[in-house]
UniProtKB/TrEMBL annotation:
Residues 67-338 form the Fe/B12 periplasmic-binding domain. Belongs to the bacterial solute-binding protein 8 family. The gene is cdtB. Gene3D superfamilies: Nitrogenase molybdenum iron protein domain. The keyword Signal applies. This is Siderophore ABC transporter substrate-binding protein CdtB. Keywords: Signal, Transport. Residues 1-20 form the signal peptide. It comes from the Bacteria. It is found in: Cell envelope.
Length: 338
């Protein structure tokens, strides 16, 4: 299960128990009808689908999937960006708290429990024609457990620090192919590319006092502040570098998400780099940002003394799809340029 932005335990705190079953039917739920989707005119393919998922598995569908069950937040967001409303999702409350890029409808979507251990009875009760999961290998236990129901399972790769922006796009395009929404995907990615290019020009024109930055999140563990820097290969950091900034965190990171581990003292190694951090607060845990504000080492950091430490707006999912990535870009501009 993917770790969360501030408190590792958030998924347990916010996860819903299964909401029961729904009557089986073959009608797909209405496409997301708010925002851009209300005016969307892009075509939906009706041709049979044969695709290769994130782990080389062949997934064959007689027609593009209409009733999709989605068990990870990035993929929920991606489906909604494609104007496809899932019939079932995992941890709807957590999604609503941490991902504001696309709003999940309050009605017509069944919550099937946690992302790591969904309630299979509730999931099957929604009569999905495709189940979309996030995994880390083709042997993932979640894939094996779901395949026994003879419902196609599309496994998307959790992350790839080698090129997180390309990985984000690839996952989005894969879901678009499975749902026949390729034309919509092209439009969304074109908007993302345009926003990124425009933002890069704004950063270049801003003549910033420093282009070095470190983005991080953290949590309070046993009274101690744990810090998770987003290093090389983290999506948020790579978006910053795509804007012309330089990630100042050079410590060891994991090969999937590009995430490191340190404490407040670790920031003494990054000089006067701008410090950026999540503004999303876990309502079930101690506010790490308040603890930082009272920490004597934090208060003496050059960037903090210079007023160059900033929270991103709340509700930006740092492991999201194109719409979350656009929110990240806007956040960089908001704290550095605007």
């Amino acid at each position: 299960m993917k770790r969360l932005s501030i408190a590792v335990a958030l998924s347990a705190a916010l996860a819903l128990t299964a909401c029961g079953t729904t009557e089986e039917n073959d009608e797909a739920p209405a496409a997301a009808a708010s925002g851009e989707c209300a005016d969307d005119t892009t075509a939906t393919s009706t041709e049979p689908v044969e695709l290769t998922d994130g782990f080389g598995r062949t997934v064959t569908l007689d027609a593009p999937a209409k009733r999709i069950a989605v068990l990870e937040w990035q993929q929920i967001e991606d489906a909604l960006s494609l104007c496809v409303t899932p019939v079932a999702v995992a941890d709807a409350a957590g999604y609503g708290a941490w991902n504001t890029a696309e709003k999940l409808p309050a009605d017509g979507v069944v919550d099937v429990g946690t992302r790591g251990e969904p309630n299979h009875e509730a999931l099957l009760g929604t009569n999905p024609d495709l189940i979309i999961v996030e995994a880390y290998s083709a042997d993932d236990e979640n894939i094996k457990a779901l395949e026994k129901y003879d419902i196609p399972v599309l496994a998307t790769k959790g992350a790839d620090a080698a090129d997180p922006i390309a990985q984000m796009r690839s996952t989005f395009e894969l879901i678009a192919e499975a749902t026949g929404r390729g034309e919509r995907a092209e439009a969304v990615l074109e908007q993302f590319d345009t926003k990124l290019a425009d933002a890069k020009e704004k950063v270049a024109d801003a003549d910033l006092p420093t282009t070095e930055f470190v983005y991080f999140d953290g949590w309070v563990d046993g009274g101690n502040i744990s810090i998770r820097p987003f290093g090389q290969g983290a999506l948020v950091s790579e978006l910053g570098e795509a804007l012309g900034l330089t990630n100042a965190w050079t410590g060891e990171v994991d090969p999937a998400y590009g995430l490191g581990q340190t404490d407040v003292e670790g920031f003494t190694k990054v000089g006067d780099a701008t410090l950026l951090y999540t503004g999303t607060i876990d309502p079930e845990a101690e506010d790490v940002n308040e603890r930082l504000a009272a920490n004597p080492i934090w208060k003496k950091l050059p960037s903090v003394e210079a007023g160059n430490a900033h929270a991103f707006p709340a509700g930006i999912w740092t492991f999201g799809g194109p719409r979350s990535a656009e929110q990240v870009i806007d956040a960089y501009l908001g704290v550095l340029v605007d």
